[in-house]
Amino acid sequence: MPPRLFAASLGFGALILAAPQVQAAPASCGPRAQVLAEIAVRHGQSRRAVGLASTQVVVEIFASDATGRWTITLTLPTGLTCMLASGEAYESLGPVFGTGA
After folding, report:
1. 56: left (phi > 0), else alpha (psi -120 to 50), else beta?
2. Which residue in 99, 62, 65, 101 sits closest to 84, CA to CA?
3. Angstrom distance (rounded) from CA 101 to CA 80
4. What order of strands is seen across the sheet that includes strand 28-31?
5. Cβ atoms of 59 and 16 closer than 8 Å
6. Strand partners, 87
7. How confident is the prediction for the chain on average, in pLDDT?
8. Taking the model in full, what pTM does it have?
């Protein structure tokens, strides 16, 4: 497994393990357009990262530089999007290994 992929999988593993520690409210789900509009308008967040899970679920991270708040969403192949977790103190770290990639 390439080092970057391994590091990314560790990061997502940590997110999964930390999920119960993060403001664990019931997931707020709805049509993708509606959920993304709420994240943008109500929370002032924009998409910062996206990935595809092996189960064909799209995982996205949204954040606001102004407030430091962040939200993680999951979108199912059916188009249903759920806000899975949210928190504060978002910080963009840049390249994982300083390779500039």
Report:
1. left
2. 62
3. 32
4. 28-31, 80-87, 70-75, 58-63, 46-52
5. no
6. 70
7. 79
8. 0.68
Question: Hey, what are 73's tokens?
Answer: 């969403």
Closest to 24 in 3D by CA, of 32, 13, 16:
16
Q: What would the DSSP string read from start to end of the chain? A: --HHHHHHHHHHHHHHHHGGGS--PPPEEEEHHHHHHHHHHTT--EEEEEEE-TTS-EEEEEE-TTT--EEEEEE-TTSEEEEEEEES-------SSSS--
Q: Is pLDDT at 88 greater than 60 in this prediction?
A: yes
Would you list the domain boundaries of the chain?
3-87
**Residue 7: how many other CB atoms lie within 10 Å:** 12
Answer yes or no: is pLDDT of 12 > 70: no
